[in-house]
Amino acid sequence: MSNEERKLKQLTIRKHAMALKERIRRLNQVIRGWINYYSIYNMKTHMTKIDEHLRTRLRAIIWKQWKVPSKRQWGLQKLGIRKDRARQTSYMGDHYQWVVTKTCVVRAISKEKLAQKGLVSCLDYYIERHTLKVKRIAVYGTVRTVV
Question: pTM value?
Answer without folding.
Answer: 0.85
